[in-house]
Structures are given as structure tokens and as C-alpha cells.
Amino acid sequence: MSQVSDQATKRLSDELSNDTLLGWLRSMQLIREFETRTMQAYQQAKIGGFCHIYTGQEALAVGTIGSVNQDDPVITAYRDHGHALARNMDPKVCMAEMYGRITGCAKGKGGSMHMFDKPNHLYGGHGIVGAQTPLGAGLAFAARYEWEVLGTGSKKVCLCYLGDGAIDQGAFHEALNLSAIFSLPVIYIIENNGYSMGTAIHRHSANADNLISRGQSYGIKSIEFDGMDIRNIYDHFRPLVDECRDLQRPGFVDLKTYRYQGHSMSDPQKYRTKDEVDEFKNQDSIANLLDHLMNERGCIDEDGWKAMRKEIAAQVKEAVQFAETSPDPDLSELYTDVFVNPEPNLSPSGDYRHGSKNPLL
Amino acid sequence: MSQVSDQATKRLSDELSNDTLLGWLRSMQLIREFETRTMQAYQQAKIGGFCHIYTGQEALAVGTIGSVNQDDPVITAYRDHGHALARNMDPKVCMAEMYGRITGCAKGKGGSMHMFDKPNHLYGGHGIVGAQTPLGAGLAFAARYEWEVLGTGSKKVCLCYLGDGAIDQGAFHEALNLSAIFSLPVIYIIENNGYSMGTAIHRHSANADNLISRGQSYGIKSIEFDGMDIRNIYDHFRPLVDECRDLQRPGFVDLKTYRYQGHSMSDPQKYRTKDEVDEFKNQDSIANLLDHLMNERGCIDEDGWKAMRKEIAAQVKEAVQFAETSPDPDLSELYTDVFVNPEPNLSPSGDYRHGSKNPLL
Amino acid sequence: MTTTIEHPALDRTETMPTFLPEDQLPAREGDRVIQLREALREAMEEEMRRDERVFLLGEEVAQYNGAYKVSQGMLDEFGPKRIIDTPISENGFAGAAIAAAMAGLRPIVEFMSWSFSLVAADQILNNAPKMLYMSGGQWGCPIVFRGNDGANGQLGSTHSWCVEGLYSNVPGVKIAIPSNAYDAKGLLKTSIRDPDPVFFLESERMLGDKEHVPAEEYYIPFGRARLAREGDACTVVSFGRPVNFCLEAAEKLAGEGIHVDVLDMRTIRPLDIDSVLASVKKTNRLVVVDQSWPFGSPATEVITQVIENGFDWLDHQPVRVNTEDVPTPYAKGLEAAYIPNPGRIYDAIKSVVQS
Amino acid sequence: MTTTIEHPALDRTETMPTFLPEDQLPAREGDRVIQLREALREAMEEEMRRDERVFLLGEEVAQYNGAYKVSQGMLDEFGPKRIIDTPISENGFAGAAIAAAMAGLRPIVEFMSWSFSLVAADQILNNAPKMLYMSGGQWGCPIVFRGNDGANGQLGSTHSWCVEGLYSNVPGVKIAIPSNAYDAKGLLKTSIRDPDPVFFLESERMLGDKEHVPAEEYYIPFGRARLAREGDACTVVSFGRPVNFCLEAAEKLAGEGIHVDVLDMRTIRPLDIDSVLASVKKTNRLVVVDQSWPFGSPATEVITQVIENGFDWLDHQPVRVNTEDVPTPYAKGLEAAYIPNPGRIYDAIKSVVQS
Ligand SMILES: Cc1ncc(C[n+]2csc(CCOP(=O)(O)OP(=O)(O)O)c2C)c(N)n1
Ligand SMILES: Cc1ncc(C[n+]2csc(CCOP(=O)(O)OP(=O)(O)O)c2C)c(N)n1
Ligand SMILES: [Mg+2]
Ligand SMILES: [Mg+2]
To answer: Which atom of ligand 2 is nearest to the CA of B167?
Structure first.
């Protein structure tokens, strides 16, 4: 296992510009601030349903998405706010979705678990554990088909995220085999935060210390590394992305990360100690990158950081404002967005119609 | 990979009595003769539905079932005639089932794919590819629960068979993980005959030369070896059975075998050459064991073998006779065997009843 | 008092409780007020104490005490061999439990939500209901699958399934859908005792509902509807959570002098059509309320059976009230309009009684 | 002649064929007699030539030329990039195809049998029908799932599913069930052109049926039933293979001077209730024949909709004829009695017209 690489030797991430890294810092801080406000809104019952907070895992979404092109397809599970923001979804639209407003990315029909953003090639936000993994294979298939058969578009790589609990779903293994057999450019990224809800990974998945052997058993290149250090993510992940893109074949990554909050907003977290949580908070990914940028690169100082945080706070506040003041979907929207081609007599209880335009389109 | 073991060194199977090996020879020949008659009956349209012939794979069922106790649970897929006969199902009852007679093991309700035999602890005969693998884990769970919680019964091992095509089903991976996490005494036996219907294994499953890595990725002891030589099967399989029984944990076996006939009775077999088929027929498991018993052990001679074949032929002929002359289920059996506890108003179209007694009970 | 069941598929003679007529069941009124989730827990605990073959498995049922705290404390009493946490492998553990049931155990499988049973559809629809038939009567499948069913927690399209709309089409299972804590306990105990597969559909929305639940043992038989409210203007048939919406609507109508029968079916397979027909014969009007989608729903089955058996008693065409025929929306307002809420039920009854 | 569909979920303006009225479709009579499997193949080939985004995947569809030879020769014409053999991973490849459809392709997924779609239930029932809704109109799912459906090959309990009994409850999909080769071609072509998910249910029992199928392109619209036989004594509604049983029964009844309308629905979602009502208004009698299990079946939906919209036109309660409500038996005799055979249909019509 190739853990943190030697600091002495030159790192791939050293070649990244200050602007890029500052952008990542901003993106991670945006997610954290956004999630803080999300939790507040949830506590105020402005947000309903299931709500899964991304705080703690920011480096993972930002670093991996930062390693691909803007038009590479991305798909994930229900813990999706981080991916949406890392993929440049407008925080306003993201927050409005959780408020169930017509101005949300899914017009209020999806909620926290269903962040979709077509202009940014984010294919959701999926609630059934593991169900997004065959979809990830399909997005890679389509990208390859467009490039190879239709002759449109270039070589792409699909990023498909799943939690450590999702590896126990048969769907994931079918997806791995299909990706390998069809040589599909999809990278399965396990956001290994050590828990499936309240179940520690060693209690839910066998041989958990060697998850990459699952990928390897399908002949898929599989690597594991620390997912809390964003530069480390880039160092290891970017080369895999290039390889999977060039050779149009799958990859498998086990990224160690940690969620600071409960599984969902209704989790008492009796299954872990405060010490354990603190241990990870001490390797916090934002503090970590900030330290590098301040003390090693010197491209930001305390004031700069304060200014950045202030600006982000204002941006998120604005997003909340936007959500607060946006209108709910009209009841007529119940029967819209069911069919692209609605026809008479499809239902005994109503006629399907076209809906109001999606705010992202 | 531990292929055929060194002939010089003593083999575990050398300790087996002549009677045991002669019994295996008889059992394999019984299956072959039975399947020949099955094909004839199918061609005469006396047998309907899907019918999957076991010819060629006899050593596998006989050798593995010969390595466990009579009360160890066994479960398999739809290519199940061999397992049924190896488990001592009366050939009469087996043939009658395929004829759809009330005297069949499932009273004619199951057919070729559903050989169930409670007295012989054969839990079917299952038609949905891979679906028997979670069931196998459950049989092992129940056996362990009886021994550990209820304090009844002794340590058992469940044998769960699947084809190479079934390893692509997510259900199998969920079953492997459950078996490992719960430490269940089940051995998954891949009857690797190289084809999933018309699809060669390299086209349907990734990294097919190293299937045991699938089992190993769950931390399950996994071995592969030749499944055409029944003594070789015993040499490798019996120790695994003992280990899984003692330690009450799962095992995984990739057994190389070959089916001489098409996938089902309606398979033109364009996907393989006659040469390939002949190559395997040249290592025929029955001829192989016969040779050992005649020339190395000298416990049977040409006359003895002729007599055995004659006796088996008569037995199978009798089974066909029995099936031919047995009555069809009465139409009243349509609404029987649906509920153990039938109640009024369970259906708008009829009242469920208890059925006639199963011939095996 | 017990009766016994003998069947070749059973390893031994099973005792079944003798079911008392409705009026001999313990009183529904009283001061032992507990939550519906506690009633479910009591049912499981009582049966697990009675029969060591009964065990519970599912996601987070043990150490986490249940995602919805239904199994709270059960790990402490029964230990990890009988209260079992599973990976997120519904198809796998449902199948394993089915085989354990074949082999003579009495599993209770908790689906955190019935919405997650779709990945296990093959096991629960092919194996559990058909094993007895496929094996010609050799092996049955005495198992209970239970969990949350239905919309209204703003959980969105994939987490709000009413599986009765799908699964009730399949012969070989019994389906219980309680509408209150009292019935939940009595029906779940019967489900665990029953030697056939039972789909037991709970509502997460109702787990916190409080009412008197007797401490003593009692069993509610399958296929016996309860007349939850009496009237002569219309027969209102429902099951599960919507029964409570029907009672709300009925209350409002009573204020207008319109009194209706509200029948709580409790189980839809078996379906107590006799009670429905008896009521329709009296009221000549029928409204069926069902929280699954309308097309080919249990509501259409009830209507069809009434038409088949009581066509001439009807003075007005039967009316069904289902959830709206769209994927479940997240937005609070949309979701509230989506379910068969009291307002829609009120309107439906009105439309039937006024013409 | 074409019409166009514009929708934000579509990458581009899609052209849809303009549908001709029944009497302007190419003649059903003629001497170009081919098998139903060939009609299906023609539909796929024509659409694959027209649109490079269309591809076919499934078990044994390529090198084996299809388990039932529907895709025979297609690998040779379209190559391995568009005719794709898959492992036995229905949930995996159904899901992959769904995402490919989201991304703009036009997959045709062949299930060797719809019975095997149960392991893919989550993907085909949660994702395909709901993607447009969950994404607030951003991504649709233009995909066709097709394969064999229904009993009668002595395949036993797990291989004889009529999934319309389950899946028709779910909003968001269109369901086509052809009863003959002519319709099969026209309906499959429409299914492939339609920008929404379509479940296309074929019958292995009918793949070898031969009849005239026009060489020219033609499309049969969804939601338009065909009056397969005319009469005034009773309205007989069916879809898929049982339509042919209805015609057999009708023929026999005609010999007795009893003439009935036989309506072939062709699609059940949409359901051409208008044609059913028009016929019932004339005959005042209704028999619905459906090869799925009875409880909450499409038959109950047809009956319920007729009751809701034409209650007063009925002189006799509607009658349904389904498969018997038991797991599918293997034995030839039991299976023959299990399905809605001509004899049972004949009796049902008789019972309705005589009283
Ligand atoms: C098929 C299915 N089963 C159960 C659930 C309920 N559930 C939602 S998230 C979750 C835990 C998943 O943990 P993991 O995959 O590690 O992701 P994480 O929450 O840690 O990001 C469970 C059991 C579900 N959504 N889908
Ligand atoms: C879920 C499912 N999909 C497809 C089928 C159809 N089918 C039956 S057997 C088979 C091939 C299985 O091959 P393998 O597992 O290698 O077993 P073998 O026939 O070689 O013994 C297929 C595709 C099925 N029965 N179940
Ligand atoms: Mg996790
Ligand atoms: Mg094989």
C-alpha cells in the first residue's frame, strides 16, 4: 500500500499552480461552510427527509474532481452536496433543492440525496446504496461509444463514487465485472470513511484491510491511499485518471477518509468515541492544505484566509437567502417531468404534462 | 495452482476402500446412463421445459458429495440431475419428475430444474442463476445456529454449487461476504465448465484464469484444481471440508470440468469445436476411475464392469418405465402446496388446499 | 389455548394460537400507552422468548438498536447470535434467511425500508413464496419480512415505496398492514407464528404513535377486518396508515351528518371480502383508500371483488383514492398532496354519497 | 412524415413518426409471411440503420445469435460495438444501459426472459422510470427493455413470470404487449423511437408464429387498441398472447350465434380505455383476459376504469380471466389448465352473455 509519499522527492502536486490550490482550498471551505448552514436549516426543519453531511471528506471530492476534465461524467450516492459544489453547482440552486423549492436543481422534487447538474455533467445523487455503480459503468460506456462509434467527443473518464458500505451490494460487483470485460473508462472511488451507518467496516465487509483485492480480482488496477490530504490524492489519483483515459479501462480506488458528522442528521453516533473523531479532525484536510499554502508556498496569509472565509460565508448566506425566499413548486408540478413524451391514458388518475423549465437548463 | 498431485507420493484417496471407489464408479455411470435416457425421453417430447444434461461432469458431483456426510446440506442450480443421483435420490422419482408425474420428487410441479430431496438433504435444484448462493449461506447459517444456539445437531458443512456463469451475479458476492463475515460453514463449488451457455468464460468474467482471487478477496480459503479426476477431487476437497467443518468457516473451490452436451437440449453448440469436446472426452472421468480400479487396484475386471453397466442400464430402464406408467398430477393439485397454512380469502380465484403426500416423505 | 398444524414440510407439529373473536380480545382502551415501535418490539420479544428458533436480522438492528429503534435493547437480551447486524446486502441476507427458514428456523428479516427490498425482489418473490410449490410440498418458508413502507417523510422517489402495489400480485405470501399499535402487536405475533412467508408492512410515520397496548399475549388472526367506525352512508375500505386518514375524514363528515363504515382490512392477503360485502350491502356505496399507486393496485382488487360478488348492491360506482400516479416528490407541499390525505378522502366520500 | 419532440432532457430535437389511422396502415393481409421473431428483428434492424445511437445488449444476443434467435445475423451487420453479449448480470447491464440512455444513447436491452428481470428490479423500477422526475427534468431515459414474458413452455415457477402483473403499477414507464407479428414490428419500432422507457413484453410461445408482415416502414402508436373481431354480445378485452385465445373462443361462440368484440389493447400503459368504453356501451358486457396472476392485475385495472367511467352501461358484472393464482407448475397438464386458455375464456363469456 502506497501511503503518504516521501516529502523529499518531487510530488506531482508541486506542479500545480498556486491558483489551482487556492481554488481547491476555497472549494473545500465552501463545502464546509455550506454544510454548516445545511445542518442549521435542517435543525430548523427547513430541510426535510434524509440529509447526509459531507464535512470531513471535502478533500476527497475536491481532489478527485480536480483531477479530471469539466466534461468527464461524475456520479455519486446520496452524500452528494460536496460533489455538487466541487462540480461547481451554484450553491443557491443546491440549497434551494434541499428547501424543496422550484429553484432547486431538481425543482424540489429530489431533495438532499438527488443533486443533478447537467451543465456540469453531474449525473446525481442516488439514494439506493450501490445502485449508482452500474450507472457509472453505463456513463463510461456511453462516453466510449460516442468517441468510438459515433465519432463525436473525445476520450473521457467517469468518476463513480461509493461508500464503504456500498461494496457489499452485489450491484457493485456486477459493475466491476462489466467495466473490466467491456474495458470501460470508469474509476470506482470508495469513500472509505470506515462506517456503513453505525456499522464499522470490519463488521460489514470481509477482509476490509485489503479492499483493493476486490478490484484486483477482476484484473482492475486498484490502489489505496490517504484521502484526507488533497495533494496526496492528486499525486496518486491523477496518474490513474490519465491511464484510464488513455487506455480506456477501469480503475478502483480505496480512499481513507472520515465523516465528522453522524451518518445522517438523526444519528446519535453511539458507535464511535469522541477521541476517534478528534483524531481525524487533527488531520483536517482544510487545515492541512492551508498550512501548505501559507507556510510552504506562502501564497496566502492570515488576512487572505480570513477574507476568503468571509467571502464564502457571504456566498453561502446568500444561498440560504435565495432558498428561503424561493417559491415552492406549484401543485401542478406533481404530474410534470414523468414523461418526455406524455400521452393520453397513461394513468387512471391524471394527465402528465411538461413542467416548468429546470433552473439549470 | 495445485494441479494433479504427484503420483509417487501417497494420496489421500489411496486410503479409500475399493467398495467406496466402486460405489463412486457406479454412481457416475448411473448418472451417465440416466442422462442418456433423459435425452432420449426429451427428444420424444416426454420431457418438457428446459433440460440441462450433466454428462461429463459426473466426477464433480460424485466426488464432492462423496467427501461430506449424508446429512450435510447440499444445494445447486438447474443442472441438477447429477447431484440428485449422487445424493441417492431414487432414479425413478427423479425421472418421474421430469415426466411431470405425481410420483416425481416435486410431484411434477418442479421439473428438471427443481430436484428436491428432503430425506437426502438436497435443497434443490434452482433456476435463477446465482440465486442458490445466498440460500447456501442460509443453510450453513441454520446448521451452525442449530449446533451453536439450539444445541441440537453437530457441526455441518453445506455444499453450494454454481456454474462459472453464476459468478457474474451480484447475489454470489453478497453470499461470499455474508459467509465470511458470519463465518458460515459453506463451500462454494464453481462447476467451471468453461461456458456460460454459449459464452466462453473469458468473454463473460474478468480475470477468469484466477477465479480463486474472487474468493480470496473476501479472506475465504480458495483453491482450484482439476475436476475431471475424481480421486484428485477427493485429495484436495476432503481436507477443505474437514477444515471448514472444524473451524466453521467458508471455502471456495474452482473446479475445472466440462459438459459433453449442449447447454440445454436446444443448443446447436456453434460456439465450440468437436476437437475441443473430444479433447475432454479423452480425459473422461469414468474411464479414468475405471482404469485405476482395474489396472492399479485390480478390484474390478471387464466382466465386473460389464455386469455393473448392465445392472445400471436395467435400473434406469426401470426408472423410465416407472415414469412412463406413473399418473399425472390431478388438476386439483394446482391449488395445493402453495401454503402450509391455507386460509380463506387468500386468493380471488380459488381456495388453497393441502396436497397429496410427496413421494419422498 | 392452541391448535396444532401438521405438515410434511414442518420438522415437527407446530402449535398455533387459537384466535379469539374480536369482542373477546383484550380491551383496546387502557392506560398502558406505548409507541407503535414498542408494540412491534414486544411482539418480537415475546415470540423470541417462546421459541428459540426465532431470530432477527437486518441492517443496524443489533448494536445500533435499529435504525428506527424498533429493536432497541433486543441485543442485550438475546445476544448477537439471535439479533444480527447485516451488511447492506438485502438480496444476500433475505436469501440466507429464506434458506434458514426452509431448514427449520423462524427468521424475522428487517428491511430498514421496504424500498430496499427491490434489490432482493428475486429472493422474496421467487423463493419465499414458491419454495413449497417447487419442492412439491417438501419445504415451506416460515419467515417474516418487516420494515417501513410508504411515503411521507420527504424521502423522495427511491425511498417511498408502497410495495403492496407490486408484491400483492404474487401468490404464496401473506401480507399484513397494521394501522395502529394494538393491531401491530397482535398481527406481528401471528405473523411470526404462521408457518408461511409473511410480508409485514409498517409505516415509519406511525412508529411514534402512542396508544394503549395490552401487556398480555394476544393474537390477531389474518383475514379479519375491523370495523373501525360505523355508519350507513358509505363503506370506506382501507389498510395501514391511511385508515387513520379515513377516520379523520369520517369524523369531519359526521359533523355534517354523514356517517360511514370504516373497515380496516389489517391483511390484504388474505382479504376479508366478506366483511366488505356485508358493509356494502348495507351502504350501497364504496370508497377504497390505498396508499400505493393506482394502476392495478390492491384498491382495484377490492373494487373488482366487490363488483364480482356484490354488483347489484351498488347504487354508485366505487371510487378509489390512491397516491397520485407519479414518482414520490421530495418537496413537502407536493408530497402532502401526493398521498391519499384526509382531504382527498373526504372529497371522494362526498362525491359518492351525494349522488 | 414526422413530428418533432423538443425537451430539455433531450440533447437534440428528436423526430417522431407521424402515426397513421388504423385503416391507413399497410395491409395486414399479404404473402410476405415471416415469423414473429423476424418481425422483431426487422424492427430493430431498421431503427439501428436509421440511428447509430441505437444498440442492442443482452445475454447471448451477439455470437450466439440470440437464445431465441431474435437477433440472428445482427452481429454480422452491426458488429460487436453495437450488438453486445453481456455476462449474467441483469442488474448490472440494465443499470449500465439506463445510464447510457441518460447520456444520449438509445439502448435496447434484451432480457432472455422477463423472469430474469427480477434481479434487476431496482434498476428498471427505480431508475428508468424516475430519472426524469428525480432530476427535475434534466435527464430522461430513452430505453427499451424487451424479452419473453409469460408461461406455457413448462419452464416452472421461476421462469414463467408475467411481469405486467407487477410492473404496471409503477408510473414512468410505457408497456407494450403485442399479440401478433404485424403489431410486434410496428410497436417495437415505436418503442425504440419513443424518448421514454418502454417495457416491451414478448411471448416465447409466439416467436415462431408466422403471418404477413409488410416490408415497408410502419409505426403503431401507443394507446390505440385494435378491434380484432367485432360483435355485440360482449366486450372481450385482452393483450399479448391471450388475445389469440380470445379469438379462438370467439370463433367457437360465433358457431353458436354469439358474436363478441375482441379488443387487442397492444399497450396497457397507455391504456386505450376509450375504445373499451365505446365497446362496452354497445355490448353492456365485459370480460377481461390477462395472463398475469389475478390479484391487483392489469385486468382489475381495466375493470375498475370501466366501472369508474361506464358503470351504468353494464348489465352484468365484469368477469376477469387470469392465470390461476398459484406458482407456475411444470407438468404439462397442470400448466395448460393454469393459463387463461380458450376453454376458460369461452366459459367466462358464456357466463356473461347468458344471464
Ligand atoms: C439498498 C439500500 N439498503 C439500505 C439503505 C439505507 N442506507 C442508506 S446509507 C446506508 C449506509 C451506507 O454507508 P456507506 O456506503 O459507507 O456510505 P456513507 O454513508 O458512509 O457515505 C444505508 C444502510 C439504502 N439507501 N439502500
Ligand atoms: C438471472 C438469470 N439470468 C439468465 C438465466 C438464463 N440462463 C440459464 S443457465 C445460463 C447459463 C449459466 O451458465 P453457468 O453458470 O456456467 O452454468 P452451466 O450451465 O455451465 O452449468 C443462463 C444465461 C437465468 N436462468 N437466470
Ligand atoms: Mg461509509
Ligand atoms: Mg458453465
So the answer is: 15
Please list the residues that pair with C200 across neighbouring strands. Answer: C146, C176
DSSP D313: G
Digits of tens for pLDDT over chain B (361 positions)?
344 445 568 999 999 999 999 999 999 999 999 999 999 999 999 999 999 999 999 999 999 999 999 999 999 999 999 999 999 999 999 999 999 999 999 999 999 999 999 999 999 999 999 999 999 999 999 999 999 999 998 999 999 999 999 999 999 999 999 999 999 999 999 999 999 999 999 999 999 999 999 999 999 999 999 999 999 999 999 999 999 999 999 999 999 999 999 999 889 999 999 999 999 999 999 999 999 999 999 999 999 999 999 999 999 999 999 999 999 999 999 999 999 999 999 999 999 999 999 999 9
Helices (H), chain A: 18-43, 58-65, 81-86, 91-98, 132-145, 170-181, 201-204, 212-216, 230-247, 274-281, 285-291, 302-325
Longest Cα pair distance anywhere in chain B, in angstroms? 70
Which of these, C328, C325, C345, lies nearest to C150 by C-alpha position? C328
Q: D282 in helix, strand or coil?
A: helix
CB contact under 8 A, A139 and D103: yes
pTM for the model: 0.98
Contact D194, D313 (CB under 8 A): no
ipTM for the whole complex: 0.98
Q: Give the largest CA-CA distance in chain A.
A: 70
Give the pLDDT score at A1. 38
Cross-chain Cβ contact A204/C85 below 8 Å: yes
Say whether residue D270 is in contact with chain B using an 8 A CB cutoff.
no
Q: What is the mean pLDDT of residues A199-215?
A: 98
- Annotated catalytic residues of C are 90, 159
The count of CB pairs under 8 A between chains A and B is 64
Nearest to A305 by CA among A316, A289, A319, A317: A289
Q: How confident is the model at residue C347 (pLDDT cuts 50, 70, 90)?
A: very high
Pocket test for ligand 1, best of A193, A197, A256, A280 (most atoms within 8 A of CB): A197
The pLDDT tens digits of the residues spanning C231-247 come to 999 999 999 999 999 99
Q: What is residue A336's DSSP assignment? A: B
Atom of ligand 2 nearest to the CA of B166: 15
CA distance B114 to chain A (A): 25
C158 lines ligand 1 (CB under 6 A): no
| Helix, strand or coil, per DSSP, at residue D321 | strand
Angstrom CA distances, C196 to B119, C129, C130, D8, stand at 21, 8, 11, 50
Q: What is the pLDDT of residues C110-125, one digit of tens each?
A: 999 999 999 999 999 9
Distance A219 CA to ligand 2 centre (A): 23
* Strand duo C267-269 + D2-5: pairing: unpaired
CA distance C266 to C191: 12
Amino acid type, A361: L
Q: What are the cell numbers at C354? A: 351525494
d(CA C104, CA B141): 11
* B201 close to A (CB below 8 A): no
Taking an 8 Å cut-off on Cβ atoms, the answer to whether B171 and C126 are in contact is no
- Closest Cα to atom 22 of ligand 2: B197
What is the atom index within ligand 1 of the atom nearest the CA of A163? Answer: 15
Strands of the A158-163 sheet, one edge to the other = A74-75, A158-163, A186-192, A251-256, A221-226
Nearest-CB residue to C89 (from A48, A168, A271) = A168
Q: What is the rounded distance in angstroms from the CA atom of residue B264 to the CA atom of residue D39?
A: 26
Residue type, C176: A
Cβ-defined contact of A110 to C324 (cutoff 8 Å): no
Nearest ligand to the CA of D123 is: 1
